[in-house]
Design a protein that fits this description.
heterodimer, A: alpha/beta, Rossmann fold, eight-stranded mixed β-sheet, globular, B: alpha/beta, 2 domains, seven-stranded mixed β-sheet, six-stranded mixed β-sheet, 16 strands, about 20% strand, binds thiamine diphosphate
C-alpha cells in the first residue's frame, strides 16, 4: 500500500498536471464565435486549477454566470466594473498573509481595463501585487451594446461613434495600452491574440512563473460588435496581427523582449473590409480613402516600431505560430 | 488600566487586537490617524498584517472586499468624500454578504468643502445594507470596534463603526484598551464559509434575473433585522468580559417619570448628558442614545418611548428638500404607538458647527409650541445670507 502511495503523484501535482483542465466550461451563453469566451478558456486552461479569479463586469461575467448556473470551475468573484485589479490585489494580499500559494487572476474587458478600471490597474501594478491581469480586448463596450471605448480603433463605427456627414467613425486613436502598462516597469507585459492559442498558453505560463504583476492584452474579436460572421473570428484576429494593426509583443521590465514577426504583412484593407464596423471606409468618399491611408500608416508604424517584419520563414511568426505546436507544418 | 489616548490611536489599537490580516486605506482627514497608527504598529512588528496603501478609497474598499473573500479578516476606514467614492463598493460588499468592518470618521460632505464633523457621509450610505453603529465616546469606539468584528462574522454583514471626526478621532480621553486575552476570548479566529478555495470552487457575485433578485434583497433585509440580536448579544458578552457595555441597540439615561426625551447619535450624547446636569431646574428629561441606526431598532425605540409626550431628535445630517433623516424614521416608528409622543426634529452641528450646552434649554423651549417642530436647522445665522436665500 505504502509503496503504491509513494509511486503515485501527489494530489496537488496531479491537479496541476491535468492534460486538459478546463477552468471555463462549455454551456455558457456567449454568442457564436465569441473571441473572449475562447480566450478566457485558453487562459484558464493554461493557468490550471490553483487560481482565484476576480472578474470585472462585462460580457464575460454576464455570459458565464446566469444564476443559478456558472461555467467556472475555478474560484471566481465578480464585484464591479472598475475594481477587478483592486479585488485581485486584496485577494493576493490575503493569500500572502495566509501563506497560501494560489495565483490570482484578474479578468476585464477593454472598457474595464483601458478606461474605467485603469486607475485600479495602475495601482495594482505599481504596488507589485503577484497578480496576472488579463484584458480581453474586443475594442468596445460590448456588454452594453457596442459603445466606443479608448480601445476602439480609429475610424471604427460603434453606436457612440457612428459615421455620418460630419464624422468618419471614431475620431481618436486606439489607446496604446501595452506601452502604458510596460511603463510601470512590471516584470511581464504582453499582447496576444485568440488566433494563436499556443502563444496564449505560453504567455500565461510565463506570466505565472514570474513573481510580481503581469499583464496580457488578448485581442478577441466580437462578431456582433465588429460585424462579421461568427465563423470568421479567428480569421479576423489573425488578419489584425498580420496587417500590423495588432502587434503581438512581450515586454519585460519595460524592455521589448519578444515579438511575433510578420512573414508577409497584409494590407490593412484585408482585415478591415470583412467587418461591418469599417464599412463606411469602403464607400465612394474621399474621406474614406484618407482614413484607410491613416490606418495603413498606423499599421506601418507598428511594424516599424516593433521591428515586426520577418526576414525569412520562422516557426513562431504570424503564419507558423499556431501550427507548430500542434504538430503541423514544420520549418527548417 | 486607564490610558490617555487619542481616539484614532485607540481605535488603531482595538483594530490591531482583532488581528486583521489585510488593511487597505487611503488618506482623508479626519480618518488618517487611525491608519497611520496601524502602519506604525505594523512597522514596529506589533501587528502581522498586509498594509495595502491603495490609490483611492474605491480601491481601499475593493481590496478589503477581495481580502475577505480570499479568507482573511480585513479592515478599512474612511470619511466624507472617501465614503462617497466608496459607495458603489459599499453596496457591493453588503450585497455579497461580506463580513468586513470599517470605521467612518464622520465628516461633512462637499460642497462647500468642509473637513469638519457632521454625519452626512455615513447617512448618505445608510441604505447600502451595512450595519451602522454610532459611538458616543472613544471608549465606545474601542469596544464597538471589537464587537463589530464578531457581529459581522456571525451575521455575514459588514459593519460600519461611525465615530465623530475630530470630536472623537482627535481628542484625548482616558480609556481602557482591552487585553489581548479578552479580545481573543471574545472573537474567534476568522472563518468565512464562502471563501474562495481552489479545492471547492464557487462563483460569487453572479448575474441574477428578476426571478431571484427580489429574494436576494429579502434575505439581506431579514439578515439585517435579525442582526439586532447579535448586536445586543455582543454588547452583553463584552460587558461580562470587560465590565463595559456600549448600549446595545440604544441606551436610555434619565428618570422614569420624564415625559420628554432627546434622542441623538454619536458624541452629541455626551454634550446632552453634561447639559442636563448644567440645567437641573428644567425638569426630568430622558436622553436616548441611538447606537444602531441600521438595523433600525423600531421595537426597542417604541418600548422606551411609551408614556412620553415629546421626543426631540437631534441629528448631524439632513436630506435637503425633505428634512431630517433620523427624525423621519423615529416619527414613523413612534406613529405606531397608541399614544404617540410628538416628535420634534432638529439638525445641529453641521460642518463642525459647535454644539454648545445651551442648546439644551433652547430645545426644551422650542417644543413648548402648539405644533411639533417638523424639522429645523438650529443656529442658522440668517444675516450671513443674501435676502433671497434666507
Ligand atoms: C460604474 C459602471 N458604469 C457602467 C456600467 C455599465 N457597463 C456594464 S458592462 C459595460 C461594458 C463592458 O465593456 P468592456 O469592459 O469592454 O467588456 P465587454 O463587455 O466588451 O467584454 C458597461 C458600460 C457598470 N456596470 N458600472
Amino acid at each position: 500500500m505504502s509503496d503504491l502511495a509513494e509511486t503515485l503523484m501527489p494530489i496537488a501535482e496531479l491537479r496541476r498536471n491535468q492534460p486538459r483542465f478546463r477552468g471555463l466550461e462549455a454551456g455558457h451563453l456567449a454568442c457564436l464565435g465569441c473571441g473572449q469566451a475562447l480566450a478566457a478558456r485558453l487562459v484558464t486552461e493554461a493557468a490550471g486549477p490553483d487560481v482565484a479569479v476576480a472578474n470585472a463586469t462585462g460580457c464575460l461575467e454576464v455570459f458565464t454566470t446566469a444564476w443559478p448556473q456558472s461555467a467556472w470551475r475555478v474560484p471566481w468573484l465578480h464585484s464591479l466594473f472598475e475594481n477587478a485589479a483592486a479585488i485581485a490585489s486584496g485577494m493576493e494580499a490575503a493569500l500572502k498573509a495566509q501563506g497560501k500559494p494560489a495565483k490570482v487572476l484578474a479578468f476585464g474587458g477593454d472598457g474595464g481595463t483601458f478606461d474605467i478600471g485603469f486607475q485600479a490597474l495602475s495601482g495594482m501594478l505599481e504596488r507589485g501585487h503577484n497578480v496576472l491581469y488579463v484584458c480581453f480586448d474586443n475594442e468596445a463596450y460590448m456588454n452594453t451594446g457596442v459603445q466606443r471605448s479608448s480601445s476602439t480603433p480609429h475610424a471604427a463605427m460603434t453606436t457612440t461613434s457612428p459615421p455620418g456627414k460630419a464624422r468618419m467613425g471614431k475620431r481618436h486613436l486606439k489607446k496604446d495600452i501595452i506601452s502604458i502598462i510596460a511603463a510601470h516597469n512590471i516584470p511581464y507585459a504582453a499582447t496576444a491574440s485568440v488566433a494563436y492559442p499556443s502563444d496564449i498558453r505560453k504567455k500565461v505560463r510565463r506570466a505565472l512563473e514570474i513573481d510580481g504583476p503581469a499583464f496580457i492584452n488578448i485581442h478577441s474579436p466580437c462578431p456582433l460588435g465588429w460585424g462579421h460572421d461568427g465563423s470568421l473570428s479567428i480569421e479576423m484576429a489573425r488578419l489584425a496581427v498580420e496587417c500590423g494593426l495588432f502587434p503581438v509583443v512581450e515586454l519585460e521590465r519595460g524592455a521589448l523582449t519578444g515579438t511575433m514577426p510578420l512573414r508577409a504583412p497584409r494590407p490593412v484593407t484585408d482585415y478591415l473590409k470583412p467587418q461591418q464596423r469599417f464599412a463606411h471606409l469602403f464607400q465612394n468618399d474621399p474621406r474614406a480613402k484618407e482614413e484607410l491611408e491613416h490606418l495603413q500608416a498606423l499599421a506601418d508604424h507598428n511594424i516599424e516600431t516593433y521591428g515586426l517584419r520577418g526576414e525569412r520563414p520562422d516557426p513562431l511568426d504570424s503564419a507558423g505560430a499556431d501550427t507548430v505546436r500542434r504538430g503541423g507544418v514544420r520549418w527548417a | 488600566m486607564l490610558q490617555a489616548l487619542e481616539g484614532s490611536q485607540a481605535i488603531a489599537l482595538a483594530v490591531a487586537l482583532c488581528r486583521p490580516q489585510v488593511v487597505a486605506a487611503y488618506p482623508i482627514t479626519p480618518q488618517t490617524h487611525i491608519v497611520e497608527g496601524l502602519a506604525r504598529l505594523i512597522a514596529d512588528g506589533k501587528l502581522q498584517c498586509e498594509l495595502v496603501s491603495v490609490e483611492s478609497e474605491f480601491s481601499a474598499a475593493s481590496v478589503a472586499l477581495g481580502a475577505v473573500v480570499a479568507g482573511s479578516r480585513a479592515y478599512t476606514a474612511s470619511a466624507s468624500q472617501g465614503i462617497l467614492l466608496m459607495s458603489e463598493v459599499l453596496y457591493n460588499i453588503a450585497g455579497l454578504r461580506v463580513p468586513l468592518v470599517m470605521t467612518c470618521a464622520n465628516r461633512a460632505v462637499s460642497a462647500p468643502l468642509s473637513i469638519w464633523n457632521d454625519q452626512q457621509d455615513s447617512m448618505a450610505v445608510r441604505d447600502a445594507g451595512w450595519i451602522q453603529l454610532y459611538c458616543a465616546d472613544n471608549q465606545e469606539a474601542v469596544d464597538t470596534t471589537v464587537q463589530a468584528y464578531r457581529i459581522a462574522e456571525r451575521t455575514e454583514l459588514p459593519v460600519m463603526v461611525c465615530v465623530d471626526g475630530f470630536t472623537l478621532t482627535h481628542t484625548l480621553e482616558p480609556l481602557e484598551i482591552p487585553s489581548r486575552d479578552q479580545v481573543d476570548a471574545f472573537l474567534p479566529p476568522f472563518h468565512f464559509a464562502r471563501a474562495l478555495d481552489p479545492l471547492h470552487p464557487i462563483s460569487s457575485g453572479t448575474l441574477v434575473s428578476p426571478e431571484y433578485y427580489t429574494e436576494a434583497r429579502h434575505a439581506h433585509h431579514q439578515a439585517l433585522l435579525r442582526a439586532k440580536d447579535e448586536i445586543v448579544t455582543a454588547d452583553n458578552d463584552w460587558a461580562v468580559l470587560t465590565g463595559r457595555a456600549s448600549g446595545g441597540l440604544l441606551e436610555v439615561d434619565g428618570p422614569d417619570d420624564a415625559r420628554v426625551a432627546i434622542l441623538t447619535l454619536g458624541s452629541v450624547f455626551g454634550t446632552l448628558l453634561d447639559a442636563r446636569e448644567e440645567y437641573p431646574q428644567l425638569g426630568p428629561v430622558k436622553l436616548i442614545k441611538l447606537r444602531a441606526f441600521r438595523p433600525f431598532p423600531v421595537e426597542a425605540l417604541q418600548q422606551v418611548c411609551v408614556g412620553l409626550s415629546d421626543v426631540i431628535v437631534l441629528e448631524r445630517a439632513l436630506s435637503p428638500g425633505s428634512g431630517g433623516i433620523v427624525g423621519a424614521e423615529v416619527r414613523a416608528a413612534l406613529a405606531e404607538l397608541s399614544a404617540a409622543p410628538r416628535v420634534h426634529n432638529f439638525a445641529v452641528g453641521l460642518g463642525g458647527r459647535d454644539v454648545p450646552l445651551d442648546i439644551y434649554p433652547r430645545l426644551l423651549a422650542a417644543i413648548q409650541s402648539a405644533f411639533p417642530v417638523r424639522f429645523a436647522i438650529l443656529d442658522v445665522e440668517l444675516d450671513k445670507l443674501p435676502a433671497e436665500d434666507r
